[in-house]
Amino acid sequence: MSNINGKVYAMNAITPMKPWKTWIVRVILFLLGLLKSLRQTVIDLSFIEFARWVVLPRGGFPFLGNGQKREDLRYDYLLFFSNFNGTWNQYIDAFSAVLSKGLNLIWNWSEKFPGSVPVTIFKEYIARVQFDTDYYYTAYPHATANDVKSAHIVQSSLDSLSLVAGQCSPEQFADAYLQFVLQVQTHLGETGDAPIAG
Amino acid sequence: MPNKNGSVYGLTILSPIIEDKSATPSHDLQIRNYLAHLSTREESPFAQAPGTHLARLVVMDDVIYVGAPACEDHLKSKYLIFESNCDGDLDSYLSGLAENIPDHLDAVWKHCVGYPGAVNRPAFINYMKACQLDTTFFFAAVNDKTVTETLRALQTQNAVADFIATHQGVDAVTLQREFIEFVAHLKAMPPPKPGSMGPHRDIKTGGRNE
Known about the structure:
By secondary structure, chain A is α+β, with helices and mostly antiparallel strands. Chain A has helices at 19-34, 36-45, 88-98, 100-107, 119-129, 145-164, 170-184; strands at 4-5, 8-17, 48-56, 76-85, 135-138. Chain A is built from seven helices and five strands. In chain A, helix 1 crosses helix 2 (36-45) and helix 6 (145-164) packs antiparallel against helix 7 (170-184). The radius of gyration of chain A is 22 Å and the shape is elongated. Chain B folds into two domains: 4-133, Alpha-Beta Plaits, CATH 3.30.70; 147-188. Chain B is elongated, with a radius of gyration of 22 Å.
């Protein structure tokens, strides 16, 4: 069992919701998908590589027959899966400090959700509804979300420069190379082992 | 349903695990035991099959009770959760898994109800789709690059940093010549293997304050 691989942490959480509240969550998540302005803070925080919410109705658990008993549940469930950089504490602290309104909008419909502020009881709730990952794989364990974004900027800039590199004079190339360095200089941080959080 | 964000697919699968009181150890424990010994580096099954950015496998024992006045719910089955963030369309991805890592798939999913085996490709894909949940909201920080493109970009990033560091103050003629050689060399290099360059796996003790 490990929730961590390199610089990424896998979080799984499941919370019960009264079925009549499920549709409110669906509408909120639909609007979140529709309106980029609502997602901007998550994009700006930039430590989430991938994340998803799944609304799972009480009758929506896969049923395959073959001796499997059909589920008989009182609640619908909200599943949350996140792949984030940094430690659990850093993640929850940042969410509570910066995204409290957004989190409340999504999780207020879950049973016993205490609100994302103050952070201590919010953490207690998350710890209660979280369950651990048995196997976690990432294709690029040494890289964070920011590393990946930066790497693609460097790649794109390099591709542009390489297109003209053989077609100009050395002086013209030197000027273009200087512009290239200026473009990529803030995107060249080293990847490697994750730092130990203190 | 937003299973896709850009060109990235957010796959969520819940497979019911066989409940057989005569099985020792139980099927969920056999899955956990297999997963505990599986590499998370370039030998990982997900590194051998194409298209997986990040993936996890989780045995969900039950839903979680949050305390009174909420009611206590319990599942009748345990479920294997497969959460994957992958390239391309679903059929191609599942076909790639079945083609490249059938033994691993069978070793894990043979403990799940109704699993037909990876060798029967259409049945395998139908089974996975029968267990699939639609994602309600899917976020991807980078949603327009494949795994290979990202690995190559990370390789380029490191190489460019080295090139810039070692070519400060170089005259224009040399700079141009060596840059062209550098780009050609970089393009000829194979991209890093998925899952490589990562740390060796340590078994962690839990999921809270790591």
